[in-house]
Write a structure and sequence with these properties.
about 325 residues, mainly alpha, 17 helices
Length: about 325
């Protein structure tokens, strides 16, 4: 903003341009001339009297001074590399103690500076930076995914194993939320791995691999669920899983720290368990869930809301109804 403003002036007019700018910076927006030129109106008001001294001395400009301001201290200079602490110390060192005291210039630590300025604009900038970095991470992840799929299509089983490992936690979350028997869980996952490998060549958009894979897994769980006339109780599932579960699955289960949630959703129906597992445990958005289940996104939102309400009612009534919690 400052660079573009000063660049429009001839060297002989730069001094006057700065004087006018300082006056604008010291004038609240509400008190400015409503017909003020846009080039000056764009500058914000700076309180504290920093630009209040109208007698400040600004010497005439030369081509060299203008070049220093526009190039060396603006377009070709990254101020983020400058430590605020060092810059403040250097700035204060140019003034004698009396001038600093009369102007209210006191040394402030970098921690206290950030307590003031971070909520004003740095937090928003950090969020913007994080979103940009997330895009870069996604591009890297998508590139790696494409590489593994291409290798898998060429018969590289190690590459396909790496693909499966990248989503194994989500696989077990979904399968165990739908099936009460650990053998059924293992069967569903194994069958999904085999079917997805055989059908991998049919996946047109490789970036949808995870969604595509989860959809196959859900279908396998549906198939097994329909074959069962009844579900085993929660305690049977837990006891049967101790010996049957592999070491890898144990590592996965140790990561689950919300046991109450897992126990509560077992009291919901099949569809409700699935929708809440996808939404809460696997962190899918309603749009992503609609793609996985092939239903309208508004339908997904309604199902999530109804399942949440039912879950809340169960919790308010005493939680788990198997005798372990009342």
């Amino acid at each position: 903003m400052f660079h573009d403003y000063l660049e429009t002036y001839e060297v002989k007019d730069c001094r006057r341009a700065l004087l006018e700018l300082f006056k604008i910076l010291d004038t609240p927006v509400s008190e400015r001339d409503e017909y003020l030129e846009e080039e000056l109106a764009q500058f914000p008001y700076v309180n504290g009297g920093l630009f209040a001294d109208e007698t400040i001395e600004i010497p005439p400009f030369t081509e060299e001074i203008k070049e220093l301001l526009l190039t060396k201290a603006s377009e070709d200079f990254d101020w983020s590399d400058i430590s605020p602490t060092i810059f403040g110390a250097v700035f204060e060192s140019t003034l004698n103690p009396e001038t600093r005291r009369s102007g209210g210039m006191h040394y402030t630590s970098i921690e206290n500076i950030h307590k003031v300025i971070s909520p004003l604009f740095l937090e928003d900038l950090q969020k913007e930076f994080d979103s940009i970095r997330a895009i870069q991470v996604k591009r890297t992840r998508d590139k790696k995914l494409e590489e593994l799929i291409q290798r898998s299509l060429q018969g590289d089983q190690d590459a396909y194993t790496e693909l499966i490992k990248s989503i194994q936690v989500e696989m077990y979350r979904i399968a165990t939320s739908q099936l009460n028997n650990i053998d059924d869980v293992n069967d569903a996952i194994q069958e999904t791995i085999i079917r997805s490998y055989d059908k991998l060549h049919t996946l047109k958009n490789h970036s949808y691999f995870k969604t595509w894979f989860i959809r196959i897994l859900i279908n396998e769980c549906h198939n097994i669920h329909r074959k069962r006339k009844r579900e085993l109780g929660l305690f049977n599932k837990l006891s049967n899983s101790v010996d049957a579960i592999s070491s890898t699955e144990k590592e996965i289960q140790t990561k689950e720290d919300d046991i109450d949630f897992d126990l509560l959703i077992k009291q919901l129906n099949y569809d409700e368990r699935l929708i809440l597992t996808l939404y809460y445990k696997n962190k899918y958005t309603p749009t992503e869930i609609s793609n996985i289940l092939d239903v309208n996104v508004n339908t997904v939102k309604s199902k999530i809301l109804r399942a949440k309400q039912k879950l809340q009612q169960l919790y308010n009534k005493g939680g788990i109804n198997n005798g372990t919690k009342k």
